[in-house]
Inverse folding.
């Protein structure tokens, strides 16, 4: 214990200061005088660039594989003045910051030569992956056997879940982009819907979507029961239950557990 | 001192070169192999593999899911020891996460937490546990003791092995304006099982040096040679670079130069 607070709480305060630029600039943090403010600021900026470097390389890996023809690597956007301008408001891991950084990466990659017809779709897909991954997560299971799925009766679409409508069938080409290629692998031009969701532990999953999936995602509000949902989505109950089960596995839907 | 092996980290984008390389005794694994990694079977067959993944932060007890993951990876790699870091990088409520190794406060409370949770983890593993020191770029005034003292008490209370990251020691010495060798000898070197050696480069944000996927300098290699003579139980030295920007040339030359320096 230090000054009436546990050391663990103090550590959390330091972690928050390094993560949240506005908190770092606040009188509340500065009054504590726990560390040299200049060093904390420099380290926070280093962490921010590292944090989003890892995400740009990971979530934009297909665009990165296309750098041979586009001449643009996603991580280069993180040394831009646009990224620097975000630093005074940035919160590591928040959905808002992920969206802002992803927009900068997309703008940079999209400004290259238009040599890949499906690049706009690909950038929307990669941007969605990066944004969906953001947000608080469960780091440790509680030990009570609850895996975060809950046991209620009214499913609810998890905040941040995204349905993408694309003009090109990207899943058909994505694995080929990561293999050796001479000419850019083509993507079939046919409309598809993809669901992008995240598990409570932070694992991002993508699945092809259909009308029943879209209906459940739109209607699952934590109040409608499975029977209500089946009626409103015009699905028979077994189909609805199977769809919901798959969506729970993906992390797109959870069951409300009440307060 | 026993014979030390010289190795590197498995970088999947260098899988082809590593599968065919000479002069590398072991590979540390920072991430599980990708399902589609064509080089993984050859890598697993050929090398001694060291588990060096993120298992969790020992400021809290690892949950059963994390323990089973650690056990599964240890079995997959047939690792001689399991490595973790002295880190506390996300808040207890999961809201903030640095996604980068960050040291705990060096206090009695954190010492008690790490000892308790490391002992619990050690009891669930079939291999010895080793723990790696993490550098601080700034001091937090709430700390109650110097890092080497805190580490010594941890190792004496747990019997866990020490993974000594030399660039981390070098960086702390640099930012405190003291000699790296003078700082190094404060650490509990008699517990060291493995050492990390790496390059450092100027970082624009820090306005100073930090770990980078680069070759170790001659100064760092001299420091490594000195450190190994002070670590009687050391069994392995690993070139610590894991990055998509790392080239095969840098990795292979670094391992060769480390071997030459030792």
């Amino acid at each position: 214990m230090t000054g009436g607070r546990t050391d663990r709480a103090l550590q959390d305060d330091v972690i928050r200061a390094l993560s949240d630029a506005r908190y770092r600039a606040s009188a509340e943090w500065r009054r504590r005088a726990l560390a040299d403010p200049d060093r904390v600021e420099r380290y926070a900026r280093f962490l921010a660039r590292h944090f989003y470097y890892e995400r740009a390389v990971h979530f934009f890996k297909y665009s990165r594989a296309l750098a041979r023809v586009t001449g643009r690597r996603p991580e280069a956007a993180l040394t831009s003045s646009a990224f620097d301008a975000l630093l005074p408001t940035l919160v590591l891991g928040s959905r808002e910051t992920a969206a802002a950084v992803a927009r900068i990466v997309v703008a940079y990659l999209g400004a290259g030569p238009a040599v890949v017809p499906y690049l706009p779709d690909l950038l929307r897909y990669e941007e969605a992956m990066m944004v969906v991954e953001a947000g608080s997560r469960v780091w440790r299971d509680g030990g009570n056997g609850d895996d975060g799925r809950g046991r209620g009766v009214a499913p609810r679409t998890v905040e941040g879940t995204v349905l993408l409508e694309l003009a090109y069938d990207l899943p058909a080409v994505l694995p080929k982009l990561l293999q050796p290629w001479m000419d850019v692998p083509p993507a079939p031009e046919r409309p598809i819907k993809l669901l992008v969701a995240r598990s409570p532990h932070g694992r991002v999953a993508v699945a092809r979507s259909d009308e029943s999936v879209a209906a459940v995602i739109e209607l699952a509000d934590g109040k409608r029961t499975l029977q209500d949902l089946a009626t409103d989505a015009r699905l028979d109950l077994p189909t609805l239950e199977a769809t919901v089960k798959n969506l729970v596995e993906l992390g797109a839907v959870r069951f409300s557990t009440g307060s | 001192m026993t014979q030390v092996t010289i190795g590197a980290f498995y970088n999947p984008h260098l899988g082809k070169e590593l599968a065919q390389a000479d002069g590398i005794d072991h590979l540390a694994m920072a991430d599980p192999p990708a399902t589609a990694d064509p080089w993984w079977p050859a890598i697993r067959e050929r090398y001694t593999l060291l588990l060096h993944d993120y298992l969790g932060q020992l400021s809290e007890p690892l949950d059963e899911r994390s323990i089973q993951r650690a056990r599964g990876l240890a079995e997959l790699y047939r690792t001689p020891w399991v490595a973790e870091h002295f880190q506390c990088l996300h808040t207890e409520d999961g809201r903030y996460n640095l996604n980068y190794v960050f040291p705990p406060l060096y206090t009695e409370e954190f010492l008690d937490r790490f000892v308790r949770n490391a002992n619990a983890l050690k009891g669930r593993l079939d291999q010895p546990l080793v723990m790696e020191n993490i550098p601080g770029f700034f001091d937090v005034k709430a700390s109650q003791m110097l890092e080497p003292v805190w580490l010594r008490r941890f190792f004496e209370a747990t019997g866990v092995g020490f993974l000594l990251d030399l660039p981390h020691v070098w960086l702390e010495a640099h930012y405190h304006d003291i000699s790296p060798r003078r700082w190094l000898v404060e650490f509990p070197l008699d517990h060291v099982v493995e050492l990390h050696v790496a390059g450092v480069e100027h970082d624009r944000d820090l306005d100073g040096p930090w770990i980078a996927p680069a070759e170790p300098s001659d100064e760092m290699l001299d420091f490594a040679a000195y450190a190994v003579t002070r670590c009687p139980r050391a069994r392995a030295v690993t070139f610590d670079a894991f990055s998509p920007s790392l080239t095969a040339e840098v990795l292979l030359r670094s391992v060769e130069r480390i071997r030459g320096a030792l």
